[in-house]
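Figure 6 in text form: structure in, sequence out.
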């Protein structure tokens, strides 16, 4: 495995990709938690991404696709496999026609929303303020304030496990609540197309500002966190259940149930992976005992 990673590193260098060794993953997660990853590669373009996936699969190398790390809790032991970081080289956003925005998987949702605003295009306002990339948003079917990425996605371009480019249409994307086909097929998302329509620039801006103000008001943005820790149980809000169980402000080590929004766990400065895991387990157990609801993590765990 180790020799195989060295071979993959060589391949990435030949392809002209950026290579980062022993990189602390705490620098790449909004929780600011995570040990070193042995090898991080920033694929240079679609072709290099295809070749790297193919080699990683053929050599049985563990790999993980990272966007902005805003939905990830990473182990303090780091990650022994290879991280493919989908960032700048996949950051393009452009208009295909007056009804379609194309965005690279490494583009931030903020960039896409601002691009739509500049072109007086409506449909993406709900996503403004979700601190992820297009790839992470499609993978998670990110959503807020009544909108979801799946509702506006008309096509996704991705690399399959054989290193081939595939174009997936809505009927193949299997979007559901915080779900997409990519959670089972593990393809690497390269880009997506979103349907939009002409709107009034002032109205679009007002909506974006209104939603951003709501976030600032309700969410503990002053602390590192990874958004809502748990999915919404059917007919309920995880934060409300947690609050009703008396867990507002409950702490384990440096991890705390936010007192501003009980659905968020915050890193008070020195939280470890174990602190957060123990707090998650405590919350799940307490909520189950007191309310009968099973909470399921929305945050993805990387490493152990
Ligand atoms: C303050 C805050 C507020 C938030 N608010 C919301 C909200 O309102 N709604 C919401 O839905 N989420 C919210 N989130 C969670 C998070 O921002 C979203 O889940 C976002 O879509 C994750 O994108 P990312 O680029 O950070 O993905 P990452 O966290 O890097 O990755 C998430 C998952 O996507 C996979 N992935 C990422 N890129 C790719 C790719 N190119 N190809 C294949 N797989 C990929 C990763 O492997 C991982 O499994 C919030 C988070 C924070 C910190």
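Output sequence:
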């Amino acid at each position: 495995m180790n020799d195989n990673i060295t071979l993959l590193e060589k391949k990435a260098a030949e392809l002209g990709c950026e290579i980062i060794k022993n990189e602390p993953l705490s620098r790449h997660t909004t929780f600011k938690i995570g040990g070193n990853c042995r090898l991080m590669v920033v694929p240079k373009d679609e072709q290099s991404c295809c070749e790297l996936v193919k080699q990683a699969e053929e050599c049985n190398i563990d790999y993980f696709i990272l966007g902005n790390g805003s939905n990830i809790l990473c182990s303090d032991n780091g990650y022994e496999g290879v991280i493919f970081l989908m960032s700048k080289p996949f950051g393009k956003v452009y208009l295909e026609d007056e009804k379609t925005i194309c965005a690279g998987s490494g583009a931030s949702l903020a960039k896409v929303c601002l691009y739509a605003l500049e072109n007086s295009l409506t449909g993406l306002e709900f996503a403004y303020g979700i601190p992820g990339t297009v790839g992470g948003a499609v993978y998670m079917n990110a959503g807020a304030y009544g909108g979801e990425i799946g509702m506006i996605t008309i096509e996704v371009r991705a690399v399959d496990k054989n290193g081939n480019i595939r174009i997936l249409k809505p009927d193949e994307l299997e979007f559901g609540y915080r779900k997409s086909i990519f959670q089972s097929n593990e393809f690497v998302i390269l880009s997506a197309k979103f349907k939009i329509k002409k709107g009034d620039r002032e109205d679009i801006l007002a909506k974006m500002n209104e939603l951003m103000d709501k976030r600032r008001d309700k969410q503990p943005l002053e602390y590192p966190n990874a958004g809502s820790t748990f999915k919404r149980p059917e007919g309920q809000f995880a934060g409300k259940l947690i609050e009703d169980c008396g867990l507002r402000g409950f702490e384990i080590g440096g991890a705390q149930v936010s007192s501003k929004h009980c659905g968020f766990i915050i890193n008070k400065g020195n939280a470890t992976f174990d602190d957060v895991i123990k707090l998650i387990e405590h919350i799940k157990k307490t909520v189950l005992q007191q309310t009968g609801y099973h909470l399921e993590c929305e945050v993805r765990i990387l490493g152990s």
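Caption detail: The mean pLDDT is 97.
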